[in-house]
Amino acid sequence: MRTLKPLALTTLRAPFQHNGKLRLVIVVGAMRHANPRADIPKLLSLYRDGSLMLDELVTRTYTLDQINDGYEDMRTHRNIRGLVLYD
To answer: Measured between alpha carbons, how far is 11 from 2 in angstroms, rounded to an integer?
Structure first.
């Protein structure tokens, strides 16, 4: 039997507002490398089916006008996972 070593967490980052695109951060863990072409559609499918509970992870939402409030809430530990809504 072949034993696999766990991979270290890997973070891929793109600039926050480079050429009008939002920052993308992908954290990969577990026992394999990420395959975005396969993994992202699968994650989206799980979310749409209700199997991946992302909405429950958000503790508060903010508009762009409230972004400074979001940072202050994060600094003072009033918010764990804030989400900025771009409308």
So the answer is: 27
Q: How is residue 23 written in tokens? A: 């920052």
Tens-digit pLDDT profile for residues 38-58: 888 998 999 999 998 888 889
Domain ranges of the chain: 1-52, 54-87
Contacts of 36 (CB under 8 A, 6+ apart): 26
Across 44-77, b (16+ Cβ under 10 Å) vs e yields eeeeeeeeeeeeeeeeeebeeebeeebeebeeee
Residue 16, both tokens: 């926050």
Q: What values do phi and psi take at 84, rounded to 5?
A: -90, 125
